[in-house]
Amino acid sequence: MVRNLSNTVIVPIAGIIITMVLCYELISMLTERNNMHEIDTWMFFKYFFKMWIAVYIVSNTWTITMAVFDVGQSVVNSAAGAISGSTTIDISSMIATIDTTMETMGIGELFVLVMETFIVSFCMKIMSILITVILYGRMIEIYLYTSVAPIPFATMSNREWGQIGTNYFRGLFALAFQAFLMMVCVGIYAALVASVSLTGNIHSSLFGVAAYTVILCFSLMRTGTLSRSIFNAH
What is the DSSP track for 174-227? Predict the structure, then answer.
């Protein structure tokens, strides 16, 4: 759907823009050479070559865009093989110790533990929804970003207008590598969760897991800004 919209709706607009840019490029090329008094044949060969490159880029916008995300996907796949660890906590081997610890607690302390467990469980569900929204939001952002790709790509043949296309290209790489930063966040979260021990103070263990999940949620929210900062995209 996104590709069809890009080809049928955005490409015609990109054609108008590329025509304006190429006309501006031709006028600038002719006037900057001593007001059309120093015109060489090679200038027109250079202009036609730039025109061919501009049309080729717009005609293959989808291929170029998907190539950027293929590079990002390759990096993510390599990271998935390098990052080891699980984000789940296996408490089956700790049930006996937890039961023994709870038997030593009084009614008041058990009631506090019940309330803490309820609050942490409720907060974890909210954060899981936020994390899901972040992940799906990134996917929607990718679709929106790629749907208008022909317009900024149409400006890349000109020095002044080309800043639009260059910045868009940086944004593409920022979106592609944001997934890698997300993988790093999940890997760090897995390492932090693996260090949580439920055999000691149950209260601190509960809030420790909640704190690490908050850190994960906050880090995932920051991956987009960090990725754009790395690639100097704005």
Answer: HHHHHHHHHHHHHHHHHHHHHT--SSS-HHHHHHHHHHHHHHHHHHHHHHHHHH
